[in-house]
Amino acid sequence: MSTETATAVPDTGARTPQAAELITDARSRIDDLDGRIIGLVQERMAVSAVIQRERIASGGRRVNLTREMEILAHYRDQLGRPGTALAMTLLELSRGQI
């Protein structure tokens, strides 16, 4: 039985150096993933702007509600109820960018 008292490692909340290292590495991966996700969202916004521009130029509406419902359903089916909120955010970011 160890007489050492576990103390939290600063900035991670971990109680051991090993756990702190694992958390630090995992956070680094999350930061990398977040950067890629942001880049993909920006790319999605640009593609959406092309679609909107072409739709409007051809006499259509900026937003296609049927398509948006398909997107919402897809995200909900893949990610559950929070997926719907994520899809709504993506749609909101992509509307009116032209």
Describe the structure.
There is one protein chain. It contains three helices and no strands. Helix 2 (65-79) runs antiparallel to helix 3 (81-94). The chain has helices at residues 17-57, 65-79, 81-94. The termini are far apart. The protein has 98 residues and is an all-alpha fold. It has one domain (17-94): Chorismate Mutase Domain, subunit A. The model has no long low-confidence stretch (mean pLDDT 91). The chain is elongated and about 65 Å long.
What low-confidence regions span 5 or more consecutive residues with pLDDT below 50?
A: none
The appropriate CATH architecture is: Up-down Bundle
Helix content: over 70%
The CATH topology is Chorismate Mutase Domain, subunit A
Oligomerization status of the protein chains: single chain
SSE order, one letter for each helix or strand: HHH
Find the count of extended strands (DSSP E, 2+ residues).
0
Compact summary:
One of its GO terms (molecular function) is chorismate mutase activity. The chain has a single domain (17-94), classed as Chorismate mutase (Chorismate Mutase Domain, subunit A).
List keywords for this structure.
elongated; mainly alpha; Chorismate Mutase Domain, subunit A; 98 residues
Strand and helix layout:
Blueprint: H1 17-57, H2 65-79, H3 81-94
Helix pairs in contact: 2-3
InterPro entries: Chorismate_II_sf, Chorismate_mutase_highGC-bac, CM_dom_sf, CM_II_prokaryot
GO biological process, one term: chorismate metabolic process
Protein name: Chorismate mutase
